[in-house]
Write a structure and sequence with these properties.
The complex is a heterotrimer. Chain A contains 21 helices and 24 strands. By secondary structure, chain A is of the alpha/beta class. Chain A has four domains: 223 residues, Rossmann fold (3-Layer(aba) Sandwich), CATH 3.40.50; 118 residues, Rossmann fold, CATH 3.40.50.920; 173 residues, Thiamin diphosphate (ThDP)-binding fold, Pyr/PP domains (Rossmann fold); 65 residues, Alpha-Beta Plaits (2-Layer Sandwich), CATH 3.30.70. In chain A, the strands form six sheets. A seven-stranded mixed sheet of chain A has the order 3-2-4-5-7-6-12, with helices on both faces. In chain A, strand 6, helix 6 and strand 7 form a beta-alpha-beta unit. The longest helix of chain A has 20 residues. Chain B has an eight-stranded mixed sheet with strand order 6-5-7-8-12-13-4-14, sandwiched between helices. Chain B has a three-stranded antiparallel sheet with strand order 9-10-11. Chain B has a two-stranded antiparallel sheet with strand order 1-2. Chain C has a single domain, classed as 3-Layer(aba) Sandwich (Pyruvate-ferredoxin Oxidoreductase, domain 3). Chain C is built from eight helices and six strands. Chain C has a six-stranded mixed sheet with strand order 2-3-1-4-5-6, sandwiched between helices. In chain C, helix 1 runs parallel beside helix 6, helix 2 packs parallel to helix 4 and helix 7 packs antiparallel against helix 8. Chain C is globular and about 45 Å long. The chains are: A alpha/beta, B alpha/beta, C alpha/beta. Chains A and C meet through helix 7, strand 8, helix 9, helix 13 and helix 14 of A and helix 1, strand 2, helix 2, helix 3 and helix 4 of C. Strand 8 of chain A pairs antiparallel with strand 2 of chain C, so a sheet runs across the interface.
């Protein structure tokens, strides 16, 4: 984390896109920021929370994205500047409130930052938040670089206050998690006062009650605000054109697509033939600006991630302006010039331009590529994702898998969102059979648990993490108890939002900025809801499995098993070995009948080495964190754990 | 005997619903586990040959090979297997009154064997509530605690595997015909282990026509009575045609017609009613309550019986020809029924790499199927 | 001394390794050192799930100009720093070219596919031979073993930064390293990181 307050105006820093956006919010004088952790968005709130320790700024990790948006909206209603941050699918969670907020309008500048993850580098979807801007009719901005990430945030706050509505800024992983040079601007003094005024007329945006009714009247006002935004967009500094006055091809792009397109044009030496129209304001489209550039040529290439949002909107605009700008050939997602799944890179744009222009390009000699591929195929074995060494989830899923297999009634586990989603893979013994959105594991399990009358007699389990529990599992759990669904929920409590970097959640007694807050006890909550609750240490494999048997065999409603163990990467456990592990080579059965490499072949902890020559297991001292679990699974007692002094 | 691995065992036995849950494969390795009467392969194992397959009584059992190993000759298909003598027995004075199903012969023989150090430990089946559980007993006085019929096959051989792992080298095993088959396979050292010494000093087989699926019986009984109050269970000889459950509140009689659907299908491919591979086999004496039928098969078995009788552990008596013939007929009928099922299900004597549950010389198959039950 | 280094524009550096090896820190340190030198830096990286045993890659675009893509075009790397040898091959497949240089830590980290026996980890001699075949110049050091002698294998990344400085492929000097880590790391860790940097430099000089 960079101390964003340490640098003065004019300083040139190497900032991550997320840091640049956080600094931009600080330079805009943001007063309140809220969010829910999610890659690639988390560093924005983290950096602001860090800055909040030194100034008059309130930052929280909220229970979920909808609550975060509501918390941030309150600040805006009270006249403050507020920011709400989430990853792409978080916008889905917040969208119900977002629709109504867009209808009621805002007061103090309010910005929603949505960080999308094209290619799903750290997601189980590559959903797009951009469509929400159009759906709920609010302005959308997309930074196309690091400096712009900072500058655009300031502009977004100002725009929000001009049109008195929320403004959405959309980033992508390759900007949020990339770094570049940024020159900082001044930080304003802080003198904001929070007052909520509500005594005015219902249609008074600044003094009346804040609601979306009367709906058609407010809706009309909202659309008027959008038209206002379009006028500002036509003159926005974030929409730029580079290229010849009469290009053969006009490449329209935004966000990271701009950087890829620029690089592609540069590499192909097409600066004289291809014009590059980079849009920073992508909804509503700046129609006058587009009319001007669309008129330059009939060949249009649209480069964007992931789906054809820009492309569709440009086509609609172009169709309406037909008589003025003429007929266009539009290359993009629809005709397959640019793929409509996965993230982009310079080479995808290069190939799109090659297809349109017919020029020749070879980045590297073909024989080199062929040889390198051949070598890498044998020389670089794939690296599948795995639970970290010492991860409590590996132990938890070991016990869950074992209990379900031994129970032998084709029981299954509905998964959820977190590191433990990896249990769809062999690292978690392929235990999960469904994975969808936050909280869905328990909701789906609740439904499965009611299928008994249709002949389903398979035991139904769900798993969730401690942060996910609060985020969206609670309503599903309430439902399961209330509907008498027969399920077992296993809470994999590793004391933090581990996947995204240990952000606190309502179960912990510390907040985003390190202040003491009341932590809510998951066990007591579940008991109060009416579930049977058990708590185990997942490293105690035997007790965990026995407890699971008890729960699987118990009849009557919902049981919750809390498997509690800190994440191996948590500050508390990191770099601390509980045990010094070793393998007694005289005892190790290796691949013989009686073991067949249970530890390396099945348990697969990265801290183990399978020595093919000796046919023995060894411990990789560099990787092993000394959790001791492999000693518990070794059938011959060959893995020895020695207590660390 | 052909030996394959866990993958094939999964296909051949679990996949065809042939697992009886005898425990032969349990805890030899981390992959096979037993829970509530069901045996499961918990993780895949890719070894091409494993003890799990080698010991399984439902996978590639070659009766000629077992017979040569046990009796130095090929499998003959005799209804009651190879034996020396059939007598009537019951517990002798030395045995305190246990919860004996019939005459207490098994407990008496095991107690005597332990007392006289013929074995270091006995592998028996105890009961935990309704659930039969394996038990290793080393003190002869504790044997009677495991007395009584279980009517369900328990993973008893897991206790044998544990015993071997714990270093016992002179074990006595009591079990059903399928369990005796597994023990016999194991004793033949099918994996050609170096320095193999037969660790089994005594095998006492039980008569068994069929057993009951533990899970199905538990769920069936839980609808009739409080399962935790069950103290014993028995199926008295015909013509009773009921199963008797002893509970805290007296006896509960359940018609056999309700019980029979709980018989696992694998019992219908079993040729062996009288534990033909054991040193001695013990069962009911139909028509003489309080007595058992004892088949003495091996020399070791004969010595055991002699010693138990001499020491007052066992009382013996003659066996009427009628009873013998009746038993023999019942055993033959089971062989014939099961052979027909094996043939229909293509589980026997398959060729061309198709694996079989059982291999028997074709002539013997014909001989058994062609045999007539004897009439006195 | 640094003035003698003539960089292509942009200079494309890839730092690769396995999640948990400190890839991101290494790229930040190098990026900051070069930025203080007056160059513009773009760093593209993937992390998140990749902490969990996956391959990690940082792309550094180094130029007097700015506005480069956070992803290097295929085949356009000038230098690959691999914290793990098989990762070097993986990167060369996509970003290598006959003129590329490689600085490689030879300490293997087995993937779970290798641990499970589904895949084979190549012999170190083969890896070095293949890497040499695919690049113009290669340096191999055992940064992890050296880091262990300094007390913590995680220092392997800083040892590699020290080694990078010694290759003189980029204008990186000790003073700049010291100023960057003093600014970005807790005071208690500065000394050991300086020691790691020096150790790395020596491993190339020798």
């Amino acid at each position: 984390m960079t101390d964003l307050l340490a640098h003065q105006e004019g300083a040139r820093c190497l900032l991550m896109g997320n840091e640049a956006m956080a600094r931009g919010a600080l330079e805009a004088g943001v007063n309140v920021a809220a969010g829910y952790p999610g890659t690639p968005s988390s560093e924005i709130i983290e950096n602001l929370a860090n800055a909040a320790q030194n100034g008059r700024l309130y930052v929280e990790w909220s229970t979920n994205e909808k609550v975060a948006l509501e918390v941030a909206a309150a600040a805006s209603f009270a006249g403050l500047r507020s920011l709400c941050v989430m990853k792409q699918n978080g916008v889905n969670v917040a969208s119900d409130f977002l629709l109504h907020l867009a209808g009621s309008g805002t007061r103090g500048g309010m910005v929603l930052v949505a960080c999308d993850d094209p290619g799903a580098l750290s997601s189980v979807n590559e959903g797009e938040s951009r469509h929400f801007a159009r759906l709920v009719e609010i302005p959308l901005l997309e930074p196309g670089g690091f400096q712009e990430a900072l500058d655009m945030m300031k502009w977004a706050f100002a725009l929000s206050e001009k049109i008195r509505n929320i403004v959405m800024v959309r980033s992508v992983t390759r900007l949020s998690h990339a770094s570049g040079n940024v020159v900082l601007g001044p930080l304003p003094g802080v003198d904001a006062q929070a007052v909520f005024r509500y005594n005015g007329n219902i249609l008074d945006p600044m003094e009346g009650p804040v609601i979306s009714m009367p709906v058609t009247a407010k809706h009309g006002l909202q659309q008027k605000k959008l038209r206002q935004a379009v006028a500002l967009f036509d003159a926005s500094p974030f929409n730029t054109y580079t290229g010849p006055d009469a290009p053969e091809i006009l490449c329209i792009t935004a966000s990271a697509g701009y950087l890829y397109s620029k690089e592609a044009i540069d590499l192909l030496g097409l600066e004289d033939r291809v014009g590059l129209l980079k849009l920073g304001t992508t909804w509503p489209l700046p129609s006058r600006l587009l009319a001007k550039y669309l008129a330059l040529t009939h060949q249009i290439l649209i480069v964007e991630e992931v789906t054809s949002f820009l492309e569709d909107n440009v086509k609609i605009l172009a169709a309406g302006m037909g008589p003025e700008i003429g007929v266009k050939t539009i290359f993009g997602k629809t005709d397959g010039t640019i793929p409509s799944v996965g993230e982009l890179n310079p080479d995808i744009v290069i190939h799109a331009l090659l297809k349109i222009t017919g020029v020749d390009y070879q980045g590297v000699p073909a024989d080199y590529t062929q040889r390198a591929e051949t070598i890498a195929d044998t020389g670089a074995p794939a690296r599948d994702l795995t639970f970290c060494p010492g991860c409590p989830h590996r132990a938890s899923f070991w016990s869950i898998h074992m209990a379900l297999q031994m129970d032998n009634r084709q029981g299954f586990v509905c998964g959820d969102i977190g590191c433990y989603s990896l249990a769809i893979f062999p690292t978690g013994f392929s235990t999960l059979k469904t994975v969808h959105s936050m909280g869905s594991g328990t909701g789906i399990a609740s439904g499965f648990g009611k299928l008994g009358p249709f002949g389903m007699n398979q035991p139904v389990l769900a798993v969730c993490g401690d942060s996910t529990f609060f985020h969206a599992v609670l309503p599903a759990l309430v439902n399961a108890v209330h509907q008498r669904s027969e399920i077992t929920l296993v809470v994999l409590d590793n004391s933090g939002t581990a996947m995204t970097g240990f952000q606190p959640h309502p179960g912990l007694s510390v907040d985003a900025s390190g202040n003491a807050v009341p932590g809510l006890d998951i066990a007591r909550i579940c008991e109060a809801i009416g579930a049977g609750v058990r708590v185990c240490d997942p490293f105690d494999l035997e007790t965990t499995r026995q407890t699971l048997f008890d729960l699987l065999e118990s009849r009557g409603g919902v049981n919750v098993l809390i498997l509690k163990k800190r994440c191996a990467l948590s500050p508390e456990r990191k770099a601390r070995k509980d045990f010094k592990m070793s393998v007694d080579q005289a005892v190790c059965l290796g691949s013989n009948c009686g073991c067949n490499r249970l530890c390396t072949r099945i348990f697969r902890c990265p801290g183990l080495i399978w020595n093919k020559e000796k046919k023995m297991t060894e411990i990789d001292e560099v990787i092993c964190v000394g959790c001791g679990v492999c000693a518990s699974i070794c059938p011959s007692g060959a893995v020895v754990k020695k207590e660390k002094a | 005997m052909h030996i394959y691995g866990a993958k094939q065992l999964q296909e051949d036995v679990f996949g065809q619903d042939l697992c009886i849950g005898c425990g032969a494969c349990i805890d030899l390795c981390p992959y096979f586990k037993s829970h509530n009467g069901k045996t499961t392969l918990v993780f895949p194992c890719d070894l091409s040959e494993g003890r799990c397959y080698a010991y399984c009584p439902k996978a590639e059992v070659d009766l000629d090979e077992l017979s040569r190993q046990a009796w130095d000759g090929p499998y003959t298909g005799r209804s009651l297997g190879n034996f020396r003598e059939i007598i009537a027995t019951r517990a002798g004075k030395k045995m305190s009154n246990g919860n004996f199903q019939a005459g207490g012969t098994v407990s008496s023989l095991v107690a005597s064997a332990l007392k006289h150090h013929r074995i270091d430990a006995a592998i028996l089946t105890d009961r935990d509530g309704l659930k039969p559980v394996p038990r290793r007993v080393t003190d002869w006085r504790e044997v009677v605690r495991c007395a009584g019929s279980k009517l369900m096959v328990s993973p008893t051989l897991a206790a044998m595997n544990h015993g071997l792992r714990d270093g016992f080298s002179c074990l006595g095993v009591v079990g059903t015909p399928c369990q005796m088959t597994a023990v016999a396979k194991m004793r033949g050292n099918p994996m050609s282990k170096e320095n193999f010494a037969d660790p089994i000093a005594l095998t006492i087989g039980l008569f068994c026509n069929w057993s009951l699926d533990a899970r199905q019986l538990a769920s069936f009984l839980s609808e009739k009575t409080d399962v935790s109050g069950i103290r014993g269970m028995d199926i008295p000889p015909p013509p009773a045609n009921v199963m008797v459950i002893e509970t805290g509140n007296g006896q509960l009689e359940i018609p056999l017609s309700e019980i029979k659907p709980l018989i696992p299908p694998t019992c219908f491919i079993c040729l062996d009613m009288t534990s033909e591979w054991a040193d001695v086999s013990v069962g009911m004496f139909e028509g003489r309550p309080g007595w058992n039928t004892l088949i003495i098969r091996s020399e070791k078995g004969a010595e055991l019986v002699q010693q138990a009788r001499d020491a007052g552990f066992l009382e013996t008596g003659g066996m009427p020809v009628d009873t013998h013939m009746h038993l023999s007929n019942a055993a033959l009928e089971k062989k014939q029924r099961s052979l027909r099922t094996l043939i229909r299900r293509e589980l026997i004597n398959n060729n061309n790499d198709k694996r079989s549950a059982l291999r028997v010389a074709p002539g013997i198959v014909q001989k058994i199927l062609g045999s007539k039950t004897e009439r006195p | 001394m640094d003035h003698t280094i003539h960089l292509p524009d942009p200079f494309n550096l890839i730092i690769t390794g396995v999640g948990g090896q400190g890839n991101v820190l290494a790229s930040k340190v190098v990026g900051n050192m070069l930025m203080e030198k007056g160059l513009n830096i773009t760093i593209g990286e993937t992390f998140g799930a990749s902490q969990r045993g996956g391959s990690v890659m940082s792309h550094l675009r180094i130029s007097p100009r700015s506005g480069f893509s956070p992803q290097i075009p295929k085949g356009k790397a000038h230098l690959v720093i691999a914290l793990e040898p098989t990762e070097a091959l993986r990167v060369l497949k996509d970003y290598g070219n006959p003129k590329v240089n490689v600085l490689c830590n030879i300490r293997p980290i087995h993937s779970i596919g290798v641990i499970s026996g589904d895949q084979d980890y190549p012999l170190l001699e083969s890896l070095q031979k293949w890497i040499r075949e695919l690049c113009e110049q290669a340096w191999f050091i055992n940064a992890t073993d050296a880091a262990i002698t300094l007390g913590n294998p995680i220092l392997g990344n800083v040892i590699m930064v020290g080694a990078l400085a010694a290759t003189r492929m980029l204008p990186l000097d000790r003073g700049r390293f010291e100023s960057v880590i003093t600014r970005t790391m807790p005071a208690a860790k500065v000394e050991i990181n300086l020691a790691a940097f020096d150790r790395g430099r020596k491993m190339i000089d020798n």
